[in-house]
Amino acid sequence: MTAKQGSTQQNVAVIGAGVIGITSALKLQQLGFKVTIFDPQGTAQGCSKGNAGHIATEQVFPLASPSTIKQIPNMLFAPQSPLSIRWRDVLSTLPWMIRFLYSARKRSFDASTRALTELNQHSLPSWETLLSSIDEEGLIKVDGSLLVFESEALFESYQQTLDALNQAGVEYQIWDQLRLRRKLPKLGLQVRYGVFFPNTGHTIEPYELCVSLNQRFQELGGKFVENGVLSLTKQGEVITENGTQQFDRIVLAAGLHSAPLVASLTGIKVPIQAERGYHVMVEKFDHELPMAVSSADRKFIMTPMKHGLRLAGTVEYGLPSAPFNRKRTELLIKQGDIMLQDGIDRRAVGDHWMGERPSTSDSLPVIDTICDDKIVLAFGHQHLGLTQAAITADLVSQLIANQPTSINVAPFTLRRFS
């Protein structure tokens, strides 16, 4: 029995309209399920709206690593560090940080690396298949991405990472200064080396990508309800402020908001933290760079997009209720001004934005089933939500259809936190 033949009477609720929820809903709708999305904010109004747009298949190493442990003093005492913790939120983030440090042990780090590598290896092919199915291949450009180095010492120290990338099967090329000048004439002259990752890409506009997916979802008969979900039941009920609806299956893809719903259903408290990422748009700068460029020295990324150049990056751990930190976006402008030969005209600076990415302590998402398979979990993708959305949608649809999964989902089990 195919999924479509067996799914015509199945009603599925998807909780969350970020890129994970929307791709999962579209995939299920294509397979013949009757799908309803619930999100009180509408389409992609959270961290899916303003991310860096990078399809980062090369990022196979979890944030919880032995090297990150050494950075913790700087995270606490240098508020403008690319990786920081809000002092005011230290006590509230402490339980998560303890689990984070525990995950940085070599054994845990290696296991998480293997899981992320397998997930990322399937990410771009899954995106290409999904976008091809709706004739929107142009929403993602597979032009590769570049990691650049100004410091020769930093580049030399990166050789160990290159060896690890080799072992993980991540393809890359070393670009010298001459090739960098030829390929990226607008890049700052202080850049000495580049590592080019050919099997990566970027979307021309993350929000428009989500809108296009949602539009196709609704054209296929999918339903979108702008209601907040108060609770779920083990029997498949979705309880909102407007009442209760019964579903055959539920997909929980609500990012940070997934954790309390999971705790109420299972008693398991997922160690998940707001990984606050910032961006600044520089209008009319979309032709400055031909691809996404990350700075190893400055820990940020510049992505050419439909409406300009997006400067993004920096990680700030804190409470979701914490106020917008303007210093983070000002730092991005300063770094971008240094990295581009002609600098940045302040008059071209547009939107300043912040999104709260759901980051688990071990950097792995939760992709699992609970309540006798009634509820499928798909959340906690940290800053790789865009990258891993399409393969996650494949896995979600396979779990809903009771089919073998494309990859082993055991590393992403909820029970690792019990």
TrEMBL record:
GO cellular component, one term: cytoplasm
Keyword Lyase: no
Pfam families in the cross-refs: DAO
Protein origin, superkingdom: Bacteria
GO molecular function per UniProt: oxidoreductase activity
InterPro entries to which the protein is assigned, alphabetical: FAD-dep_OxRdtase (IPR006076), FAD/NAD-bd_sf (IPR036188)
FAD dependent oxidoreductase domain segment(s): 12-399
UniProt keyword Oxidoreductase present: yes
Keyword entries, A-Z: Oxidoreductase
EC number(s) reported in the record: 1.4.99.1
The protein's name: D-amino acid dehydrogenase family protein in hydroxy-L-proline catabolic cluster
